[in-house]
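User: Teach me something about this protein's shape.
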Amino acid sequence: MSLPGDFVKICETVALTVCPLVGRPEGIEPECYSRNVEIAGTLIFQPATIIIHVIALVMTSIMIYHIKSKYTAVGRKEIVMFFYLYMMVTFIELLLVSGIVPAASDYFVAGHIGLITATFWCLLLNGFVGFQFAEDGTPLSLWSIRISSLVVFLAVFGLSIATFKNLAGFTFDHPLALWIVLYIFNGAALAIYFVLQIVLVLNTLDDRWPLGDILFGISFYVIGQVILYLFSVKICDTAKHYIDGLFFGTICTLLGVMMVYKYWDSITKEDLEFSVGSKQNVWEVKELLEDEQAYSNYPPPPLPQGGFTGYQQPQSGYNASYPQQQYGAY
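Assistant: First, the predicted structure itself:
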């Protein structure tokens, strides 16, 4: 079992992006990893996992589109930041895992680790949005998430570079601080978010179905991590190097993110007064048109004694030559 700060056992099991830059001067190579393919003279690593990354980018784009279409939903602008960060993490990971960018590119790997931590941090802050400590959509709510996520990214990016280059007392052969950030800080952020959402649903919502969404989301993520760190080598050997644990870990992470979207969608309701193209409004307009058409088939009612109805105009003076005008009363 891996000790705190020890990436050797971890990287011998699964090919993480950080593995070529920690533990040993030459990096740590996994015992078994997915085979590569050659495309136009270029070696592409982890082809099956890359397909999942592309699917994740497409699915995230669709989720972002649907979030933006809910114009009046609570926390719409806050939660979309999380999905943008996840998309950036997925794209950088695709470049590193595939070998399009060399795996030992310290600045790319540091950016990837920084984005991962910023994504967990953004998710944690979104967990507080439903409690309305700051009104959602306001500059205070939005910029507190943006600025703090940027600070977290820069801090972890700097820590990663210092670790890879043995600066400021940090060393690549025993990267304890980096290990704490990746596994303790990020894990705590996810756990706190999970607890906050349970409290939110139990205390403020009558519907308990959203609990199922968040439970499925955390379950998918945990299952993915278990497969990634415990069964990657066994999967790789069984599948004859076509796939490894990284393939299933990426799938489970995507499913977890999709359940975060499903959970948010289930606890937010759009105000139909401001919705565009509402079917209810279409049916109301149709009924009004049918009523007007039915009303026009009957002759106008006679004038009551001593007055006019609606906006009837009497025939007098220079208007006498024109027929009486009738505008139906509403």
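Now, about its shape. The chain has one domain: 8-274. Residues 271-289, 306-323, 325-330 have pLDDT under 50 and may be disordered. If you'd like, I can walk through any region in more detail.
User: That's plenty for now, thanks!
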